[in-house]
Write a structure and sequence with these properties.
Strand content: 15-25%
Largest sheet: 2 strands, antiparallel
Radius of gyration: 19 Å
Structural class: alpha+beta
Order of helices and strands: HEEHHEEEHHHE
Helix content: 25-40%
Distance between the termini: 57 Å
Strand order of the largest sheet: 1-2
């Protein structure tokens, strides 16, 4: 009986891992949204903005669930790092992206509409993540990645 339970647990873990790999989420490089010194775990996540935010432990998950707004900046950054959201516009102005302005903000590469926005972010140094990934900026510049449409080949009618 214990062996069956253990095998079922392993099978579930493999299935979840396969699902995340298929969705381009590489948790080896993802840090906890609460404790950036710890790696995120596959079975510790919360639903957030129609996506998943990952944590290192149940305590961090509980902290986030109790006050998600408090951790919005790090959660938003993780959504981009896990490729569940992608940049569409400048997070500061909502303007068209100029890819030559791209810089690393935390663990994510971010582009801006102009060198003025890039410079403002570079000057923020430790506060750059807060500037780019706060909810207002996130809503201006980032959008949920749409799932790829499945195409099915229809059999041609040859009669």
């Amino acid at each position: 009986m214990k062996t069956r339970s253990m095998l079922a647990a392993v099978a579930c873990a493999v299935l979840v891992t396969a699902t995340l790999v298929a969705g381009d989420i590489d948790l080896k490089k993802v840090k906890c949204a609460i404790n950036p010194k710890a790696g995120a775990k596959i079975d510790k996540f919360a639903s957030y903005k129609d996506a998943k935010v990952f944590f290192c432990c149940g305590n961090c998950l509980k902290k986030f669930s109790g006050s998600p707004k408090k951790f919005a900046t790090s959660a938003n950054q993780q959504l981009v790092a896990t490729k569940q959201f992608e940049q569409k516009k400048c997070p500061l102005t909502g303007g068209k992206l100029n890819l030559s302005t791209a810089i690393k903000v935390g663990t994510v590469e971010v582009a801006f509409c102009c060198n003025n926005c890039k410079g403002k972010t570079e000057k923020a140094k430790d506060g750059a993540s807060d500037l780019v990934f706060n909810d207002k900026a996130f809503d201006k510049g980032f959008a949920k990645v749409k799932a790829a449409k499945k195409t099915t080949a229809k059999k041609a009618d040859t009669e």
